[in-house]
Every structure is written in structure tokens, then in C-alpha cells.
Design brief:
single chain; 197 residues; mainly alpha; MetI-like fold; 8 helices
């Protein structure tokens, strides 16, 4: 059933999204804390973003074989840029006065980062997460070429057998998924920015 492919697509995007957030935040923190390392980190994630998605999946398939793991790793690598950049930008934009006040209260560097700077920067960080998740929905379509399944296989099969119904189903499901996720995350984003003001 094609509905199983919808669920499979959602699972791929969800699992990749969790890893993207975790690694994106860690790399964003590292880029914020160490400027020299930050330049290298941002340069690497910039380069990853310029590699065509299908080519990136093909390279990863050499190491992981044709499987859903290949798709998940590819989605994580391809989606890191907005999370890393927005995390670094959000933390950099925290007012120096706020940092000085936290320092004056005797907070350690780690305490200032996680209890003061991170909450203030989170609306900007969440914007990066939103971009990464919505983008990965469409990129995951290429997973069918490396044995990852998902809605890409529905669309590819529809093209192969010239079944317009399959093509439209796959396309409509992708669009609905992207629109619903983007809309729901935009509501959260607006609320975060309202609380920040």
C-alpha cells in the first residue's frame, strides 16, 4: 500500500530530524565558543549543502550500502547548515549586557550558555530547525535510489509504469506533509518570537 510509504517517509524524516537537531546544536555551540573551529565547521556544512543530494547519497551508499541508514545519514548531513548557522548566529546575537549580568551573578560559562544565552537564542535556532525539517521532506525523495524507500519510490514507480495516479498521490502527500509541518512549526516560531519581545 502507498500509505505505508507515507509512514515510511515520515519515519525517515523524523529520525533524521532528531539527529540533525542534536548534531546541529553541538556544532553550533562549538562554532560559537571557538571562533577558529567555528570557521572550519561553517565552511564544512556550507560545502555539504552545495553537493547535489543524489550525489551525496551515492557517496554515503559506498559506506552504508543501500538502506534507510544511508538516507538518514544523507538527510542529517544535508540539513545541518541551517541548524548550525542559526545556533551560532542566535548565540552570537545575545546582548553583551545580558552576558555581563549573568557573569556578575557568578554563573559559570556552561551555566551562562545553557540557562541564559540558549533560551534567548532559541527562537532563532528554532527557525533553523524548521528550515532543516521542511527541506528534508523533499530531499528524502531521493532515498528511493539508494534503497531507502519512502514516497520517492511511489513517484518513481508511477513514472516507470506511467501511472499518473501514483505520481499525483506521491506528490500530493509530499506537499501536504511539507505544508502541515511548515505551518505548525511557523505557529510555534511566532509564539517563541512573541515571548522573546
Amino acid at each position: 500500500m502507498d500509505w505505508n510509504r507515507v509512514w515510511e517517509h515520515l519515519m525517515l524524516v523524523s529520525i533524521a530530524g532528531v539527529f540533525t537537531v542534536v548534531f546541529g546544536l553541538l556544532l553550533g555551540f562549538a562554532a560559537h565558543l571557538d571562533r577558529r573551529a567555528g570557521r572550519v565547521i561553517l565552511a564544512v556544512v556550507d560545502v555539504l549543502q552545495t553537493i547535489p543530494a543524489l550525489a551525496l547519497l551515492g557517496i554515503i551508499m559506498v559506506f552504508f550500502g543501500g538502506s534507510s541508514a544511508t538516507v538518514i545519514v544523507g538527510l542529517v548531513l544535508y540539513s545541518l547548515l541551517p541548524v548550525v548557522r542559526n545556533t551560532c548566529t542566535g548565540l552570537d546575537s545575545v546582548s553583551p549586557a545580558v552576558k555581563e549580568a549573568a557573569l556578575g551573578m557568578g554563573m559559570s560559562r556552561a551555566a551562562r550558555l545553557f540557562t541564559v544565552e540558549f533560551p534567548i537564542a532559541f527562537p532563532t535556532i528554532f527557525t533553523g530547525i524548521r528550515i532543516a525539517v521542511v527541506t528534508s521532506i523533499s530531499v528524502a525523495v531521493f532515498g528511493t535510489f539508494v534503497g531507502g524507500g519512502g514516497l520517492g519510490s511511489v513517484i518513481y514507480r508511477g513514472i516507470y509504469v506511467q501511472d499518473m495516479g501514483r505520481i499525483l498521490f506521491g506528490t500530493a502527500a509530499l506537499m501536504a506533509m511539507a505544508v502541515l509541518l511548515d505551518f505548525s512549526m511557523s505557529l510555534v516560531e511566532k509564539r517563541l518570537y512573541r515571548h522573546r519581545m
